Give the backbone structure.
Amino acid sequence: MSGGVELYLLRHAHAGDRLAWEGPDDVRPLSKKGRAQADRLAAHLRGIAFRPDVVISSPKLRATQTAEPIAEALGLPLRTDERLGGFLDLAALEGVLADAGDPARVMLVGHDPDFSELVAVLCDTAGAPMRKGALARIDAARPLQPGGGTLRWLLSPDLLTPEG
């Protein structure tokens, strides 16, 4: 899309109960369920010949563990950006995109509440909850503005069934 970006926002997969984790939150890993979610999504995206220009992840372990099988399945290197692991608003997201060379199609792997709030702000909606492992596509004009995006789809991890 000319003068815009296809944003693919992927919330990290299932990482278990945050309150039950005793270590630093930045190194909380995916659960067995979360690893299976990431692997299923990777296989699905490879199967439909999904091809973003770049995959950028939060440096937090649960996000990189979600992003790694997807980047590998798509034959892309995985980049990390600290801003995806902290408070992420439209200005910070613009910075991430600019530093990545202004890709036309970018997959970002991160966290809530940031991703749900980004969907709501960009698409001018009261709420768009991003479940763990959910993937949203938003088409947006640049520079990013509140209400300047269109939610094209939101894929729940439950729609991707285990191979049987």
Q: What stands out?
A: The radius of gyration is 15 Å.
